[in-house]
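note to self — DONT lose this again. spent like an hour looking for the file last time. sequence + predicted structure for the chain T wanted, 81 res
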Amino acid sequence: MIIDILKNKVSSEKLVKEGVKRSLIKTISWRVIGTIDTVLISWIITGTLTLAFSIGLIELVTKMVLYYFHERAWNRIPWGK
């Protein structure tokens, strides 16, 4: 009986996919964290806050787009779900 319940739970979990909205929110929240990190590192290396924010802005946009498509591609792969 317990084995049947566990099998049903695993089977139902395999059918769950993340929605586009969830992927977008995850993308944005992760990029905010990553961009703060990039700006701080750029500021330490360059010593110029304006240049650090410029680097951070470029990095924010490009990596957000790349992450979104990466996340959506992985959502199509059933391995590990």
